[in-house]
Amino acid sequence: MKFSGSHILTVDQFTREDIDTVFAVADQMRPYAERRRITRVLEGAILGNMFFEPSTRTRVSFGCAFNLLGGEVRETTEVRASAIAKGESFYDTARVLSGYSDIIVMRHQIEGSVAEFADASRKPVINGGDGANEHPSQALLDLYTIRSEMESKGKPIDNLRIALIGDLRYGRAVHSLCKLLGLFDNLYMTLISPSELALPEEYTDALRAQGHTVRISDNLHNGIQGADILYCTRTQEERFPTPEEANRYRGLFRLNQAIYTEHCEPNTVIMHPLPRDSRTEASELDNDLNDNPNLAIFRQTDNGLLIRMALFALILDVVDRVHDSARDVGWYTGPPGQLL
Amino acid sequence: MKFSGSHILTVDQFTREDIDTVFAVADQMRPYAERRRITRVLEGAILGNMFFEPSTRTRVSFGCAFNLLGGEVRETTEVRASAIAKGESFYDTARVLSGYSDIIVMRHQIEGSVAEFADASRKPVINGGDGANEHPSQALLDLYTIRSEMESKGKPIDNLRIALIGDLRYGRAVHSLCKLLGLFDNLYMTLISPSELALPEEYTDALRAQGHTVRISDNLHNGIQGADILYCTRTQEERFPTPEEANRYRGLFRLNQAIYTEHCEPNTVIMHPLPRDSRTEASELDNDLNDNPNLAIFRQTDNGLLIRMALFALILDVVDRVHDSARDVGWYTGPPGQLL
Amino acid sequence: MKFSGSHILTVDQFTREDIDTVFAVADQMRPYAERRRITRVLEGAILGNMFFEPSTRTRVSFGCAFNLLGGEVRETTEVRASAIAKGESFYDTARVLSGYSDIIVMRHQIEGSVAEFADASRKPVINGGDGANEHPSQALLDLYTIRSEMESKGKPIDNLRIALIGDLRYGRAVHSLCKLLGLFDNLYMTLISPSELALPEEYTDALRAQGHTVRISDNLHNGIQGADILYCTRTQEERFPTPEEANRYRGLFRLNQAIYTEHCEPNTVIMHPLPRDSRTEASELDNDLNDNPNLAIFRQTDNGLLIRMALFALILDVVDRVHDSARDVGWYTGPPGQLL
Questions:
Q1: To the nearest whole angstrom, how far is the Cα of A176 from the nearest Cα of chain C?
Q2: Three-state DSSP class for residue B50
Q3: Do C46 and A64 touch (CB under 8 A)?
Q4: Contact A297, A234 (CB under 8 A)
Q5: Which Pfam families does its entry note (chains A, B, C) (predicted)?
Q6: What subunits touch chain A, counting only 3 or more CB pairs under 8 A?
Q7: E strands along chain A, which residues?
Q8: CA trace torsion C306, C311, C316, C318 (10° rounding)
């Protein structure tokens, strides 16, 4: 893929080589994301951070990634207040908003809306999530985390044993991740879910066609044995026909430290696209895992910054110039101190 | 008008000479708005972008205009969350908020609210829309677009034939535009609307008193013949007593390519303050006009950036210094590339 | 207190020496807040301005304070759109968001939520208000205002006569201010409220234990006589069990110019944490006081910028470098001019 000027709409755009490119740039972003250096390479550029569906985490992550490259962020946070609510087409919205900024991140609950928007946009568009369809930066940060976690254990992504757990039907993060994983070699995938929330067949079929082993299970304890990676998910209640139906499945698969100790390899990595539902009726990933060093869920969100910075740098074609304007950070960047 | 430090509350403030001043500065802003150059002249300045009525387009446009001059933007997006909802007066709100920023843009649904706010403000205030009353930057960008579009056809604003179409009663954009147009010479205005949504008499009377010809029509096909400019509007349903009443008038005047071809001069310019209502029951400006090069509606919103940058530069008195800090843009600014 | 890297969660953290430190830095911030100079010391830093409870004033004040030091602001404005609404714990929210920014300001309606959040945060956190509990920057700006106002009259804070008026039960601003005032010597405090809205005993007991005189009154005219400072408050209707109960107390204590003239010393300072309720049924501080030079309410909010800048500079350890990057302001910073 030629990144310069490109829309990022779906993980289908990415070859294995493209992924290597994004990850190599993400690695270079680490000193900036970790506040050891600052860069001003995008000073004067504007991101249109257009979230027509509520979101805090993803919106703030994209915004911070752009700020960390020196750019400015203008944003919107809901559809209710927008012209779309007055009957404006995505075509018009795109034509107008793309006159204001240098690049746009868009989230909207309607599947396909972001692609329709991008078609009419005069500036590159990144899909920040279109309903149950795609959320490519999430899939990239998940894959990048898998690579980073296993790298320190001396393993490549190829040949990994990965268990996906929970609502595999409605979770778009899982769907996109499966597509990216499919590009690698010889994976051993275990899909653990209630049968009603199984991964749609198109994904299992594709994985098998690419030569991966796919095992299906509805038993958490058996399914997680021998895995290198556990990828847990929240029940996506907002995508279910009714809240009651979502409630039926909430809390069916709960991972905690005791289960982990009994059934997992000592270094099995635990991931989750977040937010995890910590209400007692759900608790798919128990808080007693918070001190487990293999819990990678916050390294995932940290990596999200790197991936989003990399996408901005690649699309806006400034990778080679990021370091030109770099300088040391002059303020306190350590952990918070103890009170009194 | 002395622009430096002035509030911009109403188009009544502007003489024809003032308009020339704004437009000349707007012309100078083009390289920055089009990302051929960046300027940092307002680095360190803060815009208080106070939208107490929902808006995406206008709010983001003002915010981007300020960012493009190098300044920062702090903003609010609704009245519900504000102190005004706890009984705070506009006087207090203005005294407080004007202590935080260098300049304020305010929108509020109550007519006259922005003027009341400005009275107490310790910093210059731009009216971003106060109910059905005023929205001066919209009128300026509309007039600027008329000038630009006709300039390329070798015509000045004087002597133009302009048709205003649709809800001329509640559309504040139309009202303010009429006031500005009135400053020019010998216009031929056709007002096309259902009689219940006619332009209020104060505007027609004023135009006639200024020597312009005003013709009133309720027939779209006849009315648009011979016009240089068609200015279409959306039914302003939010200003009607009831939604049902608004529904009665929606879709009465629909312009499309076939009607345009049959009844208009070949180069008639099509304008609309946006958003246009693209729902099938409305569709005042059909999507089949999207490829018509005379459709100027997105040039209007692009021009909005220029006009708002010009107002900021004039009020904050930095016109002469905009170019001092200018430099070339170092990132990708072309159109989005093709996918895969 | 060691400020560098510290959370600011409660006024209980502050000794009298700490207060002197904050106020000395706040004094140094004045040229920047008043736009006589700009500094870029925090260029490249990001504030996470996380308001999970609606607020315009406090949110914009913190954001502007950070911008005035040269930093960027990413923010959220409500809980409804956040992962917290999907069952995410404060622990998770903190771990995630603290990976994005250099410092966080958080407001949330649940008492203790900000401290819980700070416990898990990897970056310093400032409490921007947690329900009826704490709002330390408000207490600091109130105390700073008392000091500034009395300084010009040649009086220190020690030995002052201060009347607190109105809803002393639910007003967190009053509670925190009482704690800070307690650190000074020999105050004469008059607490004027309906008995049902009296200051909770823990505060009166603490003040007396520290050697201050505390007088309790339900008569405005008597209570305010001889005071150096009147600190009025709004009925905090959002903290009452029902709106009806709040209505019973609204408008019981109304200060206006006539009462001021008859019962106060000529230079008695009038304060209010704002917003003041200017509806006729409330009007705790009449608009006829707006031209009284002793009305300090807008100097309070102006001082809020200074205090918040000082906290950021102290926590991020840049006090000594603020002036290094300082330069003159190049745009119009005077009062708004007269219209036409």
A1: 21
A2: strand
A3: yes
A4: no
A5: OTCace, OTCace_N
A6: B, C
A7: 37-38, 46-51, 72-76, 103-108, 125-130, 161-165, 188-192, 213-217, 229-232, 269-271, 327-328
A8: 40
How many other CB atoms are found less than 10 A from the CB of residue C196?
Answer: 10
Instruction: Give me the residues paired with residue C165 across strands.
Output: C192, C232
For B15, counting Cβ atoms within 10 Å of its Cβ (0-12 exposed, 13-18 middle, 19+ buried), the class is: exposed
* Single-letter code of the amino acid located at B161: R
Using a CB-CB cut-off of 8 Å, the residues of chain B touching C339 are 6-7, 9, 13
Q: ipTM for the complex?
A: 0.94
**At A154, phi and psi to the nearest 5?**
75, 20
Query: In angstroms, what separates the C-alpha of B59 from chain C's closest C-alpha?
Result: 16
Contact check, Cβ <8 Å, C5/A335: yes
Nearest CB neighbour to C99, from listed A276, A305, A336: A305
| Interface touch B337/A6, C-beta < 8 Å | yes
Name the residue among C234, C188, C230 with its Cα closest to residue C213.
C188
Interface contact C86-A275, CB threshold 8 A: yes
Residues facing A171 on adjacent strands:
none
User: How far A96 CA sits from the closest chain B CA (Å)?
Assistant: 6
B101 near C CB under 8 A: yes
Contact B40 A41 (CB under 8 A): no
The closest of C59, C71, C3, C4 to C32, measured between CA atoms, is C71
Please name the chains neighbouring B, where neighbouring means 3+ C-beta pairs under 8 angstroms: A, C
Sign of the four-CA dihedral A10, A12, A13, A17? positive
Q: What one-letter code names the amino acid at A257?
A: Q
Q: Nearest CA to CA, how far is B150 from chain C (Å)?
A: 30
Where b means 16+ CB within 10 Å and e means fewer, C54-82 reads bbbbbbbbbbbbbbbbbbbbbbbbbbebb
pLDDT by residue (tens digit) across A156-179? 999 999 999 999 998 888 999 999
Please tell me which of the candidates A46, A92, A124 has its beta carbon nearest to residue B274: A92
CB contact (8 A) between residue A275 and residue C87: yes
pLDDT digits (tens, 9 = 90+) for C288-323: 999 999 999 999 999 999 999 999 999 999 999 999
Q: Report chain B residues whose CB lies below 8 A from the CB of C329.
A: 44-45
> Does residue A229 carry a pLDDT above 60?
yes
Of C43, C86, C315, the CB nearest to A332: C315
Q: Which domains does chain B have, with CATH numbers?
A: 11-136+301-328 (3.40.50.1370), 137-297 (3.40.50.1370)
Packing angle, helices A16-33 and A57-68, rounded to 10: 80
Q: Answer whether B56 sits within 8 Å of A81, measured CB to CB.
A: yes
A13 in B contact zone (CB under 8 Å): yes
Cβ-contact A268, A163 below 8 angstroms: no
Please check whether residue C199 is in contact with residue C174, taking contact to mean a CB–CB distance below 8 angstroms.
yes
Tell the residue number behind the tokens 């698969």, with chain if given.
A253
Helix (H), strand (E) counts: chain B: 11, 11
CA atoms within 13 A on the CB side of A223: 25
* CA–CA distance, A84 with A79 (Å, rounded to integer): 7
Q: What is the pLDDT of residues B124-167, one digit of tens each?
A: 999 999 988 889 999 999 999 999 999 989 999 999 999 999 99
Helix (H, G, I), strand (E, B) or coil at A221: helix
Q: Helix or strand or coil: residue A246? A: helix
Residue B210 burial (C-beta neighbours within 10 Å; 0-12, 13-18, 19+): middle
* pLDDT at position A281: 82
Beta bridge partners of C161: C188
* Residues A47 and A104 sit within 8 Å (Cβ to Cβ): yes
Closest partner CB to B45 (pick from C57, C331, C340): C331
